[in-house]
Design goal:
Shape: flat
Largest sheet: 2 strands, antiparallel
Structural class: mainly alpha
Number of strands: 2
Number of domains: 2
Helix content: 55-70%
Strand order of the largest sheet: 1-2
């Protein structure tokens, strides 16, 4: 989503995995970064996969959970072709789980350890079974629109968590070659943290958090738009008793607010001399919002064609990642000058 920061303050590992005592595998920082990126991509991909389930009316293709039908884990012949779409989405959960486990193992095996990475790696990993259970609830409640909405919002939160993990993995750990080198690096890291804490004006950080909060407010209202309109996931699924046009207008108003805040942030970080990473993430977010808004208006006026709705769902996941990257980058910017009040 963005280029690496222009400057690094810590000494880095060589970009290869190494062997430690007992010939045990120790992943290099670049390896951990790639594993975290794989987890992020997998979490975005399953959003698109779940969208196909809903848009093809395959939400109840497997009418039970955790089995597909009755005592059968796999689809049976008695079920319609929708079973393949729904079961395929369930199988893809294992791909996401494998990516999350790989990222977690990589973070736990890396040396020196980075506590902040472990916290986010655990969140990404634990989010997968939580999401699977939430998916089961949607099936067992016959696609209750509120359960489906919670399922989607949880997906967006997991995309955000995976983004934080990937972004923070981009900053390599300090290499402890000697005690003196390690002490020097630790001192430099502490100083860099102090600089990062004061490099960006607090108002810019608050604005970044406001952008993030409104982004997720847009997601929440968007799920109500979906819950009141077509594409319920199954023809028999009940809908939220509200006029789609009314809630869609609120959704559009929130999007306009979000675009305005994001534009203000992009201009402010550029004018204040923020670091390359901050400027890039805000611009990526602006581009993603512009594309998403165009798709959103097109699908609304074109009676919600499946292709555009699927693209809109995918765009939502990309925006969740971009908005989160903006917050993480702006709280870690080390190159911007301090702006006096």
């Amino acid at each position: 989503m963005s280029a690496p920061p222009e400057s690094q303050t810590a000494t880095t590992h060589a970009p290869v995995s190494v062997r430690a005592s007992g010939d045990r595998w120790r992943p290099s920082p670049p390896t951990v970064q790639k594993l975290a990126l794989a987890a992020l991509i997998a979490n975005i991909a399953i959003v698109a996969s779940g969208g196909l389930v809903r848009l093809t009316d395959s939400g109840l293709g497997c009418p039970s959970w955790p089995n597909c039908a009755g005592s059968s884990v796999v689809p049976t012949r008695q079920l319609s072709w929708h079973k393949y779409v729904e079961f395929g989405n369930r199988l893809f959960t294992y791909v996401v789980l494998a990516a999350a486990i790989a990222a977690l193992v990589g973070v736990l095996r890396e040396r020196p350890r980075r506590r902040e990475l472990r916290v986010w790696a655990w969140l990404v990993f634990l989010g997968v079974p939580a999401q699977a259970v939430m998916g089961g609830i949607t099936v067992l409640t016959d696609l209750n629109p509120w359960a489906v909405a919670a399922h989607f919002v949880l997906s967006m939160l997991l995309v955000g968590a995976a983004t934080v993990l990937w972004w923070r993995a981009r900053t390599p750990a300090v290499t402890a070659v000697t005690a003196v080198t390690a002490a020097t690096a630790a001192t430099a890291a502490t100083a860099a943290t102090a600089v990062a804490a004061s490099a960006v004006h607090p108002l810019l950080r608050r604005l970044a958090w406001a952008v993030w909060a409104v982004t997720y407010a847009v997601f929440c209202v968007g799920t109500i738009v979906t819950g009141s309109g077509p594409h319920a996931g199954d023809p028999s699924a009940r809908r939220i008793a509200i006029k789609p046009a009314s809630i869609a207008q609120l959704h559009a108003d929130l999007v306009m607010l979000l675009v305005g805040l994001a534009l203000a942030l992009a201009v402010a970080v550029t004018a204040s001399g923020a670091g390359h990473a901050v400027r890039t993430t805000t611009r990526v977010l602006i581009g993603a919002l512009a594309f998403q808004a165009a798709v959103g208006f097109a699908q609304y006026f074109d009676k919600l064609p499946i292709g555009l709705v699927e693209l809109h769902l995918f765009g939502s996941a990309v925006i969740a990642a971009a908005a989160t990257a903006v917050v993480v980058s702006i709280t870690r910017d080390e190159s911007a000058p301090i702006i006096k009040r």
